[in-house]
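Re: beginner question about structure tokens

> Can someone show what the tokenized structure looks like for a real chain? I only ever see the sequence side.

Sure, here's an example I had lying around. Input first:
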Amino acid sequence: LAAVLVAGGLQVVLALAHGAVSWPRWSRVATGSVVLLLLGIALIVGPVRFLEARGGTTWVNDRAHALLTDSDTSGAGDSPGRLVSVNTGRPPLWREALDQSAYVRASGTGAGTFPLTHYRFRTTGGVVKHAHSQWFNVLSELGVVGLVLFVIAMALCVAVMIGNPFSRRRDPLHPLLVAMQASVITFFVHISWDWDWDMAAIGTLVFVFIAACAAYRMTRAADARRRSRRAEAAVDATSGDAGADDAETGEAVTGDAGAEDAEAGEAEAGDAGGAQEPRRRRGAGWAPRVVASAALVLLALSWMPPYLSGRDESAALAAASEGDVASALGHARRAARLDPLAANPLLTEAILLQQQGRIRDALAMIEEATRLQPDNYEVWYQLGLLQLKALGREKEAKAAFKRALALNPLDSGSRTELGTIGH
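And the corresponding structure tokens:
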């Protein structure tokens, strides 16, 4: 918070100074050149001195090897040494994504299924929900087709946000525009080794930045077109071709139409004026905007059902812990209706049905969960428990536990239950 306040305060001071003083162009160029020179020196001299103190290229090679093999043990905790540590844990996750991609290359395993991939290919314990690289994560979950479409979509976002980076450089707000563009590009770089994409706080802000940059560029371009049309209308008025146009205010008075465009301040030349666009063309832009806005609202609303389903599932577990099985069942069923592709609400409902002695209904719920998520080891584990503990079907339970172990070889629960049955 202190760093944010200091940085914000300095920016306010600089903004006020910039607005209060009419700085000549040469001073801005000189200041920018000095800043770039200092940054260049820091970026060259700093790393050289840093490497010299640690052994030069030998240290770099050792660090690269430690990164690729994930063998670095320094700075694993929250100590300051973590800043230069390469003990990231990322390469094993990337290899897991590549291993999964080798089996389902084109289409992937489905959105949000990397946790199941991690269970299948991990060599140590722990639960990981993301490959800690958006590119590897998309490759694993959506396959090559999804990765290509994702890359194209991100490239289009960058293109519409930046456009021609050298245009309108004298715009007073151009530095702020560049700062926002740099922030977005930094985000796209950083998702290469972390799960920023799944963080709503930063991901939403990035798309707000993209929208703001694109809207600002389009607004400035529209302003330039309007100024150009007004200039053309002024030239026509001066030469006597367009009638009596007021070149300073951009208002047109025509003999037949007599219409003033108060919104844009542009002239319509009813009978004689061909320099201005017809009113209907300017008004036709609202339709695609309404459609696009409605699509964005529907997209935002589509995120609500899974969220509400998770809330109901938590409420079901809370009610069950208090012994209110009937209320817990109601929450579990509502969670399943809100997110019909989720397996966890069905498993919760199955456990609650078992508590009521409704074994057949519980079995139907778990079988539905196995149909929805056949690569989820937990549904097979729960199926094995039900078959073994409630129905006494050792053969079916054994098959379910083996399927669970195939999907999660480190699952101690399935291994223990198999041991009780006997191989």
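Each token stands for a local structural state, so reading them left to right follows the chain. The first strand starts at residue 245 and ends at 246.
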